[in-house]
Amino acid sequence: MQRSGEASGRLLGRRRECAVVDDLLQAARDGQGASMVLRGEPGIGKSALIEYARASAQGFRVISVAGVEAETELAFGGLHQLCAPLLDRFAQLRAPQRAALETAFGMSAGSPPDRFLVGLAVLSLLGDAAQDEPVICLVDDAQWLDQISAQTLAFVARRLVAERVVLLFAERVPAPRAFFERLPALQIVGLADHDARALLQTVAPGQLDVRIREQILAEARGNPLAILELPRDRTPLSTADPVGADGQPLASRIETGFLHRIENLAPATRKLLLVAAAEPVGDAALLQRAGERMGIDVDEAAREAENAGLVTRRGMVRFRHPLVRSAAYRGATPQERRRVHQALADAIDPASDPDRRLWHLASAAPEPAESVATQMEQAASRSMERGGVAAAAAFLDRASRLTPDPTARGRRALAAAQAKSQAGAYDEALELLDIASLSPLSAYDEARTDLVRGRLQFFSRSAAKGLPLLLSAAERLENFDPKLAKKTYRDAMYAALTAGRLAGGSIEQVASSVLKMTTSSEPTRSDLLLVGLSRVIADGYAAGLPQIQRTLMSYRTAALPPDEALGWLPLVCRVAHNAWDFDTWSSLSGSLVELARGTGALSVLPSALLLRLSNRVFAGELSVADSLVAEAANVGDVTGSNVLAHYAALVVDPWKGRESQALRTIQTVTDDFLLHGEGKVSTATGWAAAVLYNGLGRYDEAFDAARRGASYPTEMGLSSSAMVELVWGAAHLGRPGDAITEARRVVEMAAASGTDWALGTAALVTAMVGNERDTDGRYREAIDRLERGGTRMFLARAHLSYGEWLRRSGRRSEARRNLDLAHRMLSTFGAAAFAERARQELAAVGVQMPKPSQDASTGVDLTQQEARIAQLAADGLTNPEIGAQLFLSAHTVEWHLRKVFSKLGISSRKDIGARLADLQA
User: What is the pLDDT of residue 783?
Assistant: First the structure.
């Protein structure tokens, strides 16, 4: 696109777009980070706007990144371009972030880094660099970035707040992958008619026949590159072969025009352009070596290509437009391409860049070649060590296609499918599994195929769909790999518990298979956990619980390796809840959250947060649970999956008594298409609605919802809690007989469990529906045990229920003491509806408590993010530690804290805790 010639240097017809870029740059100068995606068809002017930003970024540090289609499978390629100029700042990163980035770039060995820890490292790196001068990162052809680079840059872009950093992306539409769809975007459209005519006049002043000129303008539709290129092959009065008569898309016609220009060049120049097209880095020294191997006079050929306006040479060889590259490559024969890739492979030092050399060797192979396939398999292992799952999948995919032996081909296709699954490329993974299934697989590999397919169905569709495959795989793997079989049974058990009642008898099938599994003479903790849980399911709660309790104690007292803890503690915490072991649930859920945060294990952190916040709700710490819900939502925003964040809100919102908010949360979970077919949804939403309506005193609705939530007791957990809500509703309706069955189940579980939480709950439900002569003693036992058990939310409700019964029994003085205690506890917890029940009961015994105003306000309007940061700062965390937990840069944390100081009226970090306590009081 041409410059307008104005003093401002703006592009012709792009005043609005240039103004947007100018505003981004000015915001960064003023201390506000921003991102923008420039979207449009090929040739529409995205790259020209990128160059405008580069020229306008006076006083900025400019970092350039270019995506290339041939490199979409090479992990971290885009990030390497971005971070290479900042290598000297790596030492200033926090240790986990530095290690993640160094491992990703192959600078040090280590386990695959979590991609979000890499993202936080990049965010911190850019924020640190921006302390010296503003930074602008220009990312052209963003649609061709490798997957992990694209995901990381999108993560960083969403978190630019107080950093003097601009991320400007140029993305072709339609994009093959939607990595940047949630970022602010500017759609670049065609030039207005008068601007298009002015641009055409600059390349063909008065030379075109009027009819041809109008045809060009009509077909170009304001596309600047089309306007500049379409006239080049036309004579002034040409009327034959009107533009677009062949029906080609505009981008294809532009590419064809470039191809015609390439065909008119000298053979050596065409070869050099093919070499440059096949090697996307643009390394001039590499092109020189490869060209010389092909007998090309590189300098002479490069001059001709540059004079033809197809490339530029400024330290690196760059094509004028990506369509020039594709024309140079697609216009060559397969044999010509293979010769070029071989020359490039020979020119690359295998010690410095083995993966790139190998990629060219694979492209040079004319037919299946085992030696190259073996090297591709080795490259996949190197990629996995750096966390490059997508790259490993690409290497394995290519390796399978180059493998001559059908058996080995199937094994490699299976490995590629597994890697594709880990990378989130589910459709491609299923295709590779189909390829593997057509090969003569061993019985072991057939079982592994079912395992991968089962996990794919679980992750991408539903637990119910994946469960049969997981169970089949686990049973068959026992004969080959007992450790893998055990992990597969673990996954099958997760799937069965998640699918719940809609899985038919599947959970019983999983339990039966686990119990038949051959175990070691010295079983491990995980063996005992699976067997104990299976006995609970197969033989009854009391039969399996003693073994579960011994196993829980082992997990609680042992120092677990991180891999074991991350793999097994989610199930252990869930089992502790089912066993009514509140202490173990509290201890291990806290440890799991800290471990998942510290290691950046975002695949585990959402589940860990859900387990922890559920525990804190039962402890009466709704404010803590609220902060964990916010963290879960934050993680969901990072990962793009909010399923568990919605579940987290479902656990907390009903206790607050805000009907509209709670019902919205329940509806969100109910309507989530990813959860369709999961019986657990009915259990969880039934329990949540029962809590809400019991708090609001609408006991008919609470009873009906609780009956739905308690209808499948094998699920345990919230199903057991729904039984308690059903008893509460039935008792308040004066229909205790309708809850006898559920009360008896709670009592039976409590007898087997023996914990204070279980026995206290059993005493409470018995008091509510049992023999009147035992009621007083049962209530006293419930209060005593629940206080010792730590479940303060249920302790408060026990005081409330006891106070109600005492009032009805005419024991007003004792009622006042219990109701006052219940009111104070529930108000402090934030359980507003239940607190209101206590306030009304107090009024009935002559104690008038002011009704809290619905509009009560502390006068301090902290946002959710500010409140979370303030609390973490009050807990003693530093800005980098807060940033690591909330996936923000330390600079953004500092910016939020300045706003917190202003709103709280304080000037020192040490005053935050006291001020927050004053507000809560």
Answer: 97
CA dist., res. 164 & res. 444, Å (int): 54
Residues 609 and 583 sit within 8 Å (Cβ to Cβ):
no
Fill in the amino acid letter for 347.
A
Please give the helix or strand (H or E) that residue 214 lies within, else none.
Answer: helix 210-220
Is the separation of the CB atoms in 226 and 253 below 8 Å?
A: yes
- Tell me, what's the pLDDT at 365? 87
At 126, give phi and psi (nearest 5°): -65, -40
pTM higher than 0.90 for the full model?
A: no
Helix axes 679-696, 659-671, angle to 10 degrees: 170
Task: Show the 3-state SS of 416-465.
Answer: HHHHHHHCCCHHHHHHHHHHHHCCCCCHHHHHHHHHHHHHHHHHHCCHHH
Distance of CA 646 to the CA centre of its chain: 14
Tell me the C-alpha distance between 199 and 231, whole Å: 12
- Quickly tell me which residue has 């009027």 as its tokens: 210
The string of pLDDT tens digits covering residues 64-92 is: 998 877 677 677 788 888 998 998 899 88
Question: Which residues in the chain come in under a pLDDT of 70?
Answer: 1-10, 70, 73, 109-114, 204-208, 232-250, 280-282, 314-316, 385-390, 422-425, 459-462, 501-505, 599-603, 637-641, 673-678, 852-860, 919-921
Enter the tokens of residue 427.
Answer: 């459709």
Dist. CA 768–CA 728, nearest whole Å: 7
H or E stretch covering 516:
helix 506-516
Distance between CA atoms of residues 573 and 614, nearest Å? 11
Q: Please, are residues 717 and 578 in contact by the beta-carbon 8 Å criterion?
A: yes
Nearest-angstrom CA–CA distance, 108 and 296: 38
Q: How far is CA 108 from CA 102, 112, 117, 375, 571, in A?
A: 6, 11, 16, 21, 33
DSSP per-residue letters across 874-885: HTT--HHHHHHH
Q: How many residues does the chain have?
A: 921
Helix (H, G, I), strand (E, B) or coil at 566: helix
Going 243 to 248 to 251 to 255, the CA torsion angle's sign is negative
How far is residue 797's CA from residue 791's CA, in Å, rounded to a whole number?
10
CB 140, CB 68: distance < 8 Å = no
Phi then psi for residue 170, to 5 deg, are: -115, 120
Residue whose tokens read 């279980």: 758
668 Cα distance to chain centroid: 19
User: How many other C-beta atoms are found inside a 10 Å radius of the C-beta of residue 633?
Assistant: 19
Angle at 756 between CA 752 and CA 761, to 5 degrees: 80
DSSP letter for 94, please: -
The amino acid at 920? Q
Tell me the DSSP string of 678-695: -HHHHHHHHHHHHHHHHH
Give the tens place of pLDDT for each residue, 824-847: 999 999 999 999 999 999 999 988
Which pair of structure tokens corresponds to residue 608? 């860990």
3-state helix, strand, coil in the chain (%, to 5): 70, 5, 25
Contact 671, 646 (CB under 8 A): no
The pLDDT assigned to 853 comes to 55
